[in-house]
Amino acid sequence: MRAPLSTGMAPTPITPRSSLALRRIALFEGLSDERLDLLAQQCLWHSVEAGKPLLLRAEQQGDVFMLVSGRVRVTTYAANGRQVTFRDSEAGEHFGDIAAIDGGPRSADVVTLLPSVLASLDRAAFLSLLREEPLVAERVMQRLASLVRQLSERVIDLSTLGVQNRLHAELLRLARAAGVAHNQARLEPAPRHAALASQISTNREQVTRELNVLARSGVLQKDGKALRVADVARLEAMVSQVRGDAG
Questions:
Q1: Dmax (CA) of the chain
Q2: Sorting pLDDT into bands at 50, 70 and 90, what band is 9?
Q3: Which residues, listed in sequence order, are joined to residue 109 by a DSSP beta bridge?
Q4: Is 32 exposed, middle or buried (0-12, 13-18, 19+ CB in 10 A)?
Q5: Which of 164, 142, 244 is nearest to 208 (CA)?
Q6: In this structure, are residues 163 and 200 in contact, taking their beta carbons and an 8 Å threshold?
Q7: 3-state secondary structure of 126
């Protein structure tokens, strides 16, 4: 069994987890029982507290991680200390495949947001899986293509939109991810102002001011510990206008 990683994680190498846990991972959907049993034996299993680093940017380490439960944040830090967040990953997702595929260093930091259970598969085993299971390889390609599109859109937004407009676009993305019904979406828990700031590359004070403006205009409403987007159509129109999508 491989040695624990150097990032401070707490592996649980007593016995391999059942392959039932891997059935929660979207990447492995449809694999045979035999393949899942083999993967469960090949994986290292980790139970990690909230707020702990999993991966470090520029680290030479190529394991791929499957998030069985919990939530993690893919992020990095600028030279001035400002945090830049790329995305949050939920249970059922995987991450770390970029370094596994090209053999290069990690491209971002990953930290736990909630207590999390993860399985890690070393680079050699992951590449073997891609060669032997075309469906898994196709899903990895689709996911990487989706990430490229998302990052391209984000570069365009950061290059062309002001802080106000970037916040509108991020709130619209969160609303769509949460699910829109009757022109409303409920974000629970409400996103922290500092987290929103790191997503759109600004500071918390600017985010707070813009959120207050949206609340006064009726686009946003507080709903207990949640934040309700009360007029998604209006938010969509605001974003489309500045992006040049409106006809």
A1: 60
A2: low
A3: 75
A4: exposed
A5: 164
A6: yes
A7: helix
